[in-house]
Amino acid sequence: MSGVGENQLISIQPDELKFLFELEKQSYCDLKVANKTEHYVAFKVKTTSPKKYFVRPNTGVIQPWDSCIIRVTLQAQREYPPDMQCKDKFLLQSTIVPPHTDVDELPQDTFTKDSGKTLTECKLKVSYISPSTTQRSSESGATNGDGQGSETISTIQRLKEERDAAVKQTQQLQHELEMVKRRRNQRNGGNGLSLKLAAMVGLIGLIIGFILKLTLASPT
């Protein structure tokens, strides 16, 4: 087990997940995971509260000396946690895999601990930031002239912008999903209508042919 923020294979920034917490609103935090080795490294993200967070990608493969961004989204919550304290934790596991391994090719036991595999782990804590608390801190910092007020305000603005971007992205994905469903329903409905129309035309043709046959066969 390695310390917070880094291990022998990868480095993680930041070393703590911080979310701007507002009721009924999503918030997200990006993690930069860098491969510090000359090997291909696979990673997997786990959390103690999987229903509260949306992690993408939660599993991946990083090429040698490369990095990737993991976005962790805190789902909209209906109530504040006691004293704004969060006990949730994240665990990022990593291990060396064969060169040019694709994430879809990872065996199911890739992140299972056994004697023949080097599996490193990194724990990450979670903290919530209250807009009202940070606002008061920024005003106090500006009054005391310690230079931290403007930095806190910029952090709040950045977190709000990130939250709004996550909300827009979710809404866009939902809209695209509805469009796909509508197109699929229209396509299925159109095919059904075409089949019914063809059956009706065929039936009418048979009836007309039968009537003509009877007419021609009847004595004049």
TrEMBL record:
Coiled coil, from the record: 156-183
Span list, region Disordered: 130-151
Chain segments annotated as transmembrane: 193-212
Record has Transmembrane as a keyword: yes
Cleavable signal peptide: none
UniProt domain MSP: residue ranges: 9-129
Keywords attached to this entry: Coiled coil, Membrane, Transmembrane, Transmembrane helix
SUPFAM superfamilies referenced in this protein's UniProt entry, alphabetically: PapD-like
InterPro entries with a match to the protein in the record: Ig-like_fold (IPR013783), MSP_dom (IPR000535), PapD-like_sf (IPR008962), VAP (IPR016763)
PROSITE patterns associated with the record: MSP (PS50202)
Domain of life: Eukaryota
Membership in a protein family: Belongs to the VAMP-associated protein (VAP) (TC 9.B.17) family.
Listed name of the protein: Vesicle-associated protein 2-1
Gene: LOC104760172
